[in-house]
Amino acid sequence: MASIVEVTAETFEREVLRSEVPVLVDFWAGWCAPCRMVAPVMERIAEKYGGRVKVAKVDVDAEPELAARFGVSGIPTIAFFEPGEQPKAVVGALPEGALEEAFGLRRFLGEAA
Fold it and tell me: Which family does it belong to (predicted)?
């Protein structure tokens, strides 16, 4: 089973901002059908990139201040936090390949982006 970290306002800095590996963060809510559609995609990415890219989830209903802090106005929003870089984000239930391409994830597997 993939290891996806549930992140809160209290753990966000440690788990995401100070992470030594890039972090893909899924801003979601339980009532959001597209969020439920993207959940298995996030699990596959967590398995595929285990140890190279961390996958985290933020429940926007439980953590509205985090959503506001990062300008999340639609969900699912998938944000990519890479050490030393500005975060990048996409909105919507994108397939695995589209997420990999949007953030250049394949380079973490040693493949061409």
Answer: Belongs to the thioredoxin family.
